[in-house]
Write a structure and sequence with these properties.
With 96 residues, this protein is an alpha+beta fold. It contains two helices and four strands; from the N terminus they run E-H-E-E-H-E. A four-stranded antiparallel beta sheet has the order 2-3-1-4, with helices on one face. The longest helix has 17 residues. The model has no long low-confidence stretch (mean pLDDT 88).
Length: 96
């Protein structure tokens, strides 16, 4: 299923900047960054729960926010892209 993950981390302190880097690193391991704090991830239910638990363990619930949008398996008709950045095939080969 396609899951859109967004986060907002308070970076007013060194600890906040570290949390931001750690959360972004975990998201990169599971999906594609489409904007600064927005990731598209194609995950199964187990991967989704694992990632969610990792991110919840990293964030500070008093100052940060984390959102998961579940677009499902037929997400292709739910996403439209406009603008300069080129699109990608989420289920295609990703070369790093």
């Amino acid at each position: 299923m396609m899951v859109l993950i967004t986060y907002d981390v308070n970076t007013g302190s060194a600890a906040g900047r570290k949390r931001l880097r750690q959360i972004a690193k975990q998201c990169v391991n599971y999906g594609q960054r489409v904007q600064n704090s927005v990731f598209e991830c194609v995950l199964d239910a187990t991967q989704c729960k694992q990632l969610q638990q990792k991110l919840l363990g990293l964030m500070d619930p008093e100052t940060d926010s984390l959102r998961f949008y579940y677009l499902g398996n037929h997400y292709q008709t739910k996403i439209e892209h406009f603008g300069a950045k080129s699109t990608y095939e989420p289920e295609g080969v990703l070369m790093v």
